[in-house]
Design a protein that fits this description.
Structural class: alpha+beta
Strand order of the largest sheet: 17-21-20-18-19
Helix content: 25-40%
Number of strands: 21
Largest sheet: 5 strands, parallel
Length: about 350
Amino acid sequence: MTATGENIDIAKFRTLVPVSALSEHNLGRLHARSRLSLIAAGDLVFARGSRDGESIYLIEGELELLDASNQVVATLSAMSPDALHRIDHHIPRTVSARAKGAASVLRVDSALLDVLITSDQTGTFKVVELDSDDLGEDTDGDWMAAMLQNRLFRSLAPEKLQAMFMRMEQIDVNPGDIVIKQNDPGDYFYVIARGRCGVFRDMPGRPHPLKVAELQAGSCFGEDALISEAPRNATVVMLESGVLMRLSKSDFKELLARTVIKPLLFNEARRQVEAQEARWLDVRMPNEYAMQHLDDAINIPLFMLRARLDKLDKSTPYIAYCDGGHRSMVAAFILERNGYRVQFLKDGLPGT
């Protein structure tokens, strides 16, 4: 598969369903973020069971739709009325799509499409305009679209996304501004609309805070303390002028934490692990792990989780656990946000 580097003619784009329901302004925004791909004969456009988060339209050529036995169940032609609609718009995909000959498809961000349609059809949801004077001319891309690339937000229903954007508050920030401070109580969840932030952590035996990360536009932070009810575990400082969008603790818990984090009772979690449907992930400290842990559990302490995500396999479902459930709940949120399949053990290890 090769991207053409071009976009579809906007007149053709306007005929697609449900793109045609968009206002001219939002249609233009979505058009700017769509892309054409060339598909060689015999190549797959998508596989059955995939969760790619894209609305895909056939623009040129023909596609064969295949069932679980790899048998052709239908053929779609770009000349047919059906080609105005999204191909197999289900998550996960119910069929595979294979190019019968050379073909061209259009890929559109499904989450962004849903948000823009919601904003147009409710009349109450105003999306921040990224080319407005409020965000400035040097905005580092579309923060909302970047945020919607995140699996965490893709899992929200459109009405939840609508409510989240409606309740977000915009704040302007300057270089050196401390957004959150280590050991303070949690109050807001943040998304960077423009600018860069540095994440610093006070470490025992070090005279100065250690810089552990740098965050760009579209990045999110501040959720750990909101979920766990623990103090902030790091300090976040603006590295340059920018704009942040923030969501209050109560709104965050209502719209995000309670929606996407999946607790499990121990017996069900153990059944999944024994059936090889999931794997244990122990997010306690190494000395806690050494004292007691579940068989075959991977140990990655919560404070190291972001730095060691590459040690985990996105194709493997995980069940995070700790002693009381708080650390594992945060771990589940972090992993979900980074595209991992995860649940957490409700109330922690039995007997702890």
